[in-house]
Specification:
Helices cover about 85% and strands about 0% of the residues. By secondary structure, the protein is mostly helical. It is globular. The protein starts with a helix and ends with a helix.
């Protein structure tokens, strides 16, 4: 079970991953997103990255 410090590090990494994803969202293809995932999943965790993607879709749908 991760410690509080490890959880904070993962949350911070997820924040950094989100910034990178949003910065490139309109330019990236699926292969680029796969590379992004491979780079971040050990730092942020699969669940956090998955939530980022789902939240982006939900935000985009609500804006339409």
């Amino acid at each position: 079970m991760p410690t509080d410090d490890q959880m904070r590090e993962m949350d911070n990494a997820a924040g950094d991953a989100k910034k990178e994803l949003i910065e490139h969202l309109d330019d990236w293809k699926a292969r680029d997103v796969a590379k992004w995932w491979a780079n971040w999943y050990m730092k942020a965790g699969h669940k956090r990255l998955g939530r980022l993607l789902v939240d982006l879709v939900k935000q985009k749908e609500s804006a339409v």
